[in-house]
Design brief:
globular, 11 strands, 11 helices, 5-stranded mixed sheet, Rossmann fold, Dihydrodipicolinate Reductase, domain 2, alpha/beta, 6-stranded parallel sheet, 2 domains
Amino acid sequence: MNARREPLKVAVAGLGAIGLPLARRLDAGDVPGLSLVAVSVRDEAKARKAMAGFRQQPQLMGLSALADAADVIVEGLPSKNFLDVAEPAIARGRIFMPLSVGALIDHMQLVEKARKTGARIIVPTGALLGLDAVRATAEGKIATATIITRKPPAGLAGAPLLVAQGLSVDNLKAPLRVFAGSAREAIAGFPANVNVSVALSLAGIGPDRTQVEIWADPGVTRNTHTVRVTSDSSDLTMTIENVPDPDNPRTGRITALSALAALRRLTSPLVVGS
C-alpha cells in the first residue's frame, strides 16, 4: 500500500522580485507535495493586489508567526529583517530556506541551534552554477576559490560600499572594478548584489578564504559570474550569464527558479545532483 503524505506547508517571507514569482508557482500547484499557506509582507494592500489571481489566498501574518503556520519558511527579505524570520523557524525545527544568504554568515550560530532543534537550513544555488561540483571538491582539499562578478552599472548603483566611498557607476564608458577582497567583505559592502559569493563560500572553503571581484561593466547586459576553483580532485572554471529581473536589476530571473527547484527536491521521488 502506498502511503500518501500530507503536503508540506510553505510560507514565504517577502513578496519581492523573488518571493512573488515563487508564491505564484506554489499557488498554481507547480510543485507536487507543497502547499502555500502563508506570506509575510510590509504592505498588505499591495500584497493582496499582487495575489488577486491566486487560486487560494494564503494567510498574511507577521514574520515570527510564519514558523507556527508552515513546515518550510522561505526568506526573501532585506538583510536587516533576517533574524526576525530565521530565529523562530530554527527554534521550531522547521526547514528554513534563506535567499538573503549573505546575512547567514553573520549568524552562523543558527547552524548549531538547528542541530539541536532538528531544523534544516537549505541554501538554494541562486544565481550561480556548479555548487554541486564545489561541494564535491570540498570533500577533498580546495586550494583556491574565486568568483568574478560583472553587472550592468544599474545593478550595483546604491550599494553601501559605493555610497560610503562616494563612487558613482553612472555613465561609465569602460568596465570598472569596484571591489576586490573576501566574500565576507563583499557581502558587507554589497548586501543586495553578491549573495552568490556567500553561497560559493559556504559550499567550499568559507567566506574568508573565498576571493571576490566585482565589476561595474557598461558592456554587459546580464549579471555574469565566473567561478574558478582549484583543488586536489579537479580544477573548475564556470561562467553563468543571468537575465536581470526587470523590476530589480540587482537580482536575476533565475534566482526565483532556483528556490523553486530547491523546494521541489524536498518532495520529489527523483533527485538529480549531489
